[in-house]
Write a structure and sequence with these properties.
Shape: rod-shaped
Number of strands: 12
Radius of gyration: 44 Å
Helix content: 40-55%
Distance between the termini: 20 Å
Number of helices: 7
Oligomer: single chain
């Protein structure tokens, strides 16, 4: 009887089952289907790439959260700045009522100066992880040159502004200044001359003042303009031959601090008494940086930019806001040839322009700050959406990597149990074959002995 006929097959099966058991034990112990490249070479390469992407997305979410925290820090500082601007506006409105005495105006000015300094302190000291947030170094925009602003003025009878907005030219280094342009009266007919038109001459008075210490006393000038036109009357020059538009250059007494050049629009007798204002804001003193670059982890070049403009007093255009009253003596000191009566009237115009400009400046600063806060809020929302998207992608990528790399516990437990049973059966079969072979040997030995 051939009792060892199936022994080799059973032994081979037992060896294969032992290999399966070893592999299944390793999978169940580690939880991984792929523990080395030998388990699944292509699967290992794919899963490693997916895991790298998932880990990058996780790190990107952490970076985005840090950027959100940074923006929230900036927003908190800007809220304080907004509160300060509201208080400054209240002080300006109180001072413009003209009910306070000069000493009381001085008290208001002291508080205004202190609040301005506090805005600069907040701008210079607000930091996050060692980065200054509000000094302009995180802005992607270049520093702005000097600018001019025209508040909402009354219009001329023609519907135009007294100052032609297309003609305005402000020098890049212009100081902060307030300009008032007023049609003060009808001068009557021009001197007789064959080339002079019959239009009356209207007097336009321009007052320029500045709190900048380099500017000096307010400057007042007068221009005679032919009614119904914007042509300036210049003695000795015929307007019919050389029609020069009424132009004025705003500068200090010595002419060393030029602010800009402006042309007038056409005026008529019905415009007498109308007054128009504009004011300038000096150039920003901090050059823009490159903003913050936040890598969201989605891949190379997946960058989210964070841009925070500077918000110091110069950036907001309120660095030299003044409430002080100019007197006739101030006008006489800086304008030769003025009578006391003319100086008193000019001082009133200068004070009105300065008061109007102070309120307009702070209103513009409040509007500018609101725009900056809206920009920061929009960036915060965008970053939060980016983080949510990263989380969604990370979940999908991690699941894909897991399906390739991780063990299927249910299937592996089933196979492990099956192979354990097979091992027991195979061991039992081998044992039976061994017993049968021993019995055959014993029979052969007894038969040989008996013979």
């Amino acid at each position: 009887m051939d009792v060892l006929r199936f022994g080799d097959k059973v032994a081979l099966g037992q060896s294969l089952t032992a290999d399966d058991l070893s592999r299944e034990t390793q999978r169940l112990a580690s939880g991984l289907r792929i523990s080395s490249a030998a388990d699944d070479p292509s699967g290992l390469a794919i899963s490693q790439r997916l895991l790298a992407q998932a880990n990058g997305l996780q790190t990107g979410q952490q970076s985005i959260q840090s950027a959100v925290d940074l923006l929230q820090t900036a927003e908190g500082a800007l809220q304080t700045t907004a509160d300060i601007l509201q208080r400054m506006r209240a002080l300006v409105v109180q001072a413009s009522s003209n009910l306070d005495s000069p000493p009381q105006i001085g008290y208001l000015q002291s508080e205004l100066d202190q609040l301005t300094q506090e805005i600069n302190t907040i701008s210079g000291n607000t930091q996050f992880n060692g980065r200054h947030l509000l000094d302009g170094s995180l802005s992607m925009e270049p520093a702005l040159p000097a600018q001019y602003f025209i508040p909402k003025n009354d219009t001329l009878s023609s519907g135009l502004q007294l100052i032609d907005p297309t003609s305005m030219s402000v020098l890049p280094a212009a100081v902060q200044a307030e300009i008032s342009v007023k049609v003060t009266g009808d001068l009557g007919a021009p001197p007789p001359g064959p080339m002079n038109p019959s239009n009356d001459l209207l007097n336009v008075q321009i007052t320029v003042s500045s709190a900048d210490p380099t500017f000096g006393a307010p400057q007042i000038s007068n221009i005679a303009v032919f009614a119904g036109t914007n042509i300036e009357y210049i003695p000795g020059i015929s307007p019919s031959i050389i029609p020069l538009p009424a132009t004025f250059t705003a500068s200090n007494q010595s002419g060393t601090d030029n602010i800009g050049t402006f042309n007038l629009d056409a005026v008529s007798q019905s415009d007498v008494g109308k007054q128009f204002f504009l004011y300038t804001v000096p150039a920003q003193d901090v050059q823009g940086g490159y903003g913050l670059q936040v890598n969201d982890g989605g891949g190379e070049g997946h960058i989210v930019s964070v841009d925070i403009p500077g918000v110091n007093a110069v950036d907001l255009g309120i660095s030299q806001t003044q409430l002080a009253r100019y007197t006739a003596a101030d006008i006489l000191a800086g304008n030769a040839g003025f009578t006391l009566q003319q100086a008193q009237g000019a001082a009133g115009d200068v004070n009105l322009a300065a008061g109007q400009a102070a309120e307009y400046r702070i209103d513009h600063a409040i509007e500018q700050l609101g725009s900056i806060r809206a920009k920061i809020g929009a960036q915060t929302v965008a970053l939060q959406h980016d983080a949510t998207n990263d989380q969604t992608v990370q979940t999908a990528v991690s699941a894909s990597a897991s399906s390739i790399r991780d063990a299927n516990i249910g299937s592996d437990v089933t196979r492990f149990t099956r192979d354990q049973v097979l091992t027991q059966i195979q061991t039992g079969v081998l044992h039976s074959l061994f017993i049968d072979s021993q019995q055959v040997v014993s029979l052969v030995q007894r038969s040989l002995t008996g013979a």
